[in-house]
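To illustrate the input format used throughout this study, we show a single complete record. The first block contains the structure-token representation of the backbone; no residue identities are included at this stage. The design step must infer an amino acid for every position from geometry alone.
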């Protein structure tokens, strides 16, 4: 499906019936990372999964993609589809967007699933690294981003044992537009810390961590869960930053248990 919302053409799926789960992918990916979870939950839930602006099949305006702007895109989608409040599932950058969404539109959130993400802002070094990668992508295209990020996306064992999976994710990365790459990188670099928000999250929250995540260490996800009142933590074995694809079954089980209780 396609809808023009908040000034951009967003591509998304909207399938199933019941309580809505809104899946928000990370950078530089697309809704494809959620395919195992979509297939698992569409039988009993309404599942909506957009491609964020600049990613997948959505349009890619120029400029910095502030996390608040991406949250406004999602709120426009929720309003257009008349599906709120939602269970908001955010992976990595999708988690940053989820914090911005909860801050701006708490009435639209029934529960949070924070997936391989963090609440802290980028350090000065981290901001510089994002800007350097943005400039490289302007000069060399998506291949530069894929070359830098792909080795960090998977647990080492996954990268060795499942080359076809690695290549499928590379294909998704290479399809990301230059505006999407630069806009998201600069938006992430400029995002504020969400640490002040964590004690005030009152909706049920599940934090999911990849045991072998090279981007957001499992210990950091554990600390995130401890900082949110009553949050649960699910540690996914044999998985890195893309646990939704690396060990899909182990992700689906705690999500299902969480959903059944809210």
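Output of the design step:
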């Amino acid at each position: 499906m396609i809808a023009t919302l908040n000034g951009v053409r967003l591509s998304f799926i909207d399938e199933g019936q019941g309580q809505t789960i809104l899946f928000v992918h990370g950078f530089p990916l697309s809704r494809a990372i959620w395919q195992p979870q979509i297939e698992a939950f569409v039988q009993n839930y309404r599942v909506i999964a957009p491609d964020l602006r600049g990613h997948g099949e959505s349009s890619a305006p120029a400029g910095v993609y502030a996390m608040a702007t991406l949250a406004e895109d999602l709120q426009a989608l929720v309003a257009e589809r008349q599906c709120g409040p939602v269970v908001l599932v955010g992976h990595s950058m999708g988690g940053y967007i989820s914090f911005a969404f909860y801050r701006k539109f708490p009435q639209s959130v029934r529960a949070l699933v924070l997936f391989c993400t963090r609440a802290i802002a980028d350090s000065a070094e981290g901001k510089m690294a994002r800007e350097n990668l943005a400039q490289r992508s302007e000069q060399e295209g998506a291949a530069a981003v894929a070359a830098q990020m792909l080795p960090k996306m998977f647990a080492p064992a996954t990268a060795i044992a499942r080359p076809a999976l690695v290549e499928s994710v590379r294909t998704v990365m290479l399809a990301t537009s230059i505006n999407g790459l630069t806009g998201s990188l600069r938006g992430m670099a400029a995002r504020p810390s969400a640490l002040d928000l964590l004690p005030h999250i009152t909706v049920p929250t599940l934090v999911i961590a990849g045991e072998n995540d090279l981007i957001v260490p499992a210990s950091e996800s554990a600390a995130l869960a401890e900082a949110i009142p009553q949050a649960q933590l699910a540690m996914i074995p044999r998985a890195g930053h893309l646990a939704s694809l690396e060990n899909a079954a182990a992700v689906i089980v705690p999500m299902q248990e969480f959903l059944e209780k809210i």
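Structural context for interpreting the output: The longest helix spans residues 124-140. The chain has one domain: 2-261.
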